[in-house]
Amino acid sequence: MSLVDVILGRRSIRRYEPEEIPKDVLDKILEAGRQAPSAANRQPWHFIVLTDHEIKKQLSKWMFTKHVKNSAVTIVGCANTGFIDRKWSTIGTSIALQNMAIAAWAMGVGSCWIGGFKESKVKQLLEIPDKWKVVALVSFGYPAEKPHPKRRKPIEKIVGFNKF
Q: How far is CA 33 from each of CA 89, 93, 104, 144, 153, rounded to the nearest angstrom?
């Protein structure tokens, strides 16, 4: 399967099998994030890899979605806001998380991007320093569902050539 096929076939997974992700697979997922581009190659990110069920259960109390507690792993993507312009540190961290989600899918591991959470509670629970912003969380696990493709806007509505 080509990389483009992986990207086009990826779906958000919210139900996971009760199966751990092997260390070598998780290491490749993390490496995909580490290799992401960032402004001036500053790599303004830090990732907290959550495998402890009790921590994930506690964390899910402060989210708009509850599937984190049943994930094999949830990665908390943090951006260093004191390092460079906050905008670029957030974008770089987002790119790294997306790399992880795509790499995971290529290896049969599902994921779901989570942006709805109470940042202050997440920071407190995970002891994240003040200069760090929680950009997003991504849950990972082997899929226990096969979601259908979501409707997308036609390409003509989202792309302009040489002008808006």
A: 14, 8, 11, 24, 28
| Structural domains of the chain, count | 1
* pLDDT tens digits for range 18-40: 999 999 999 999 999 999 999 99
Is residue 51 assigned to a domain?
yes
In a domain, 1, yes or no: no
Alpha helices in 3-106 (DSSP H): 3-9, 23-34, 53-60, 86-106
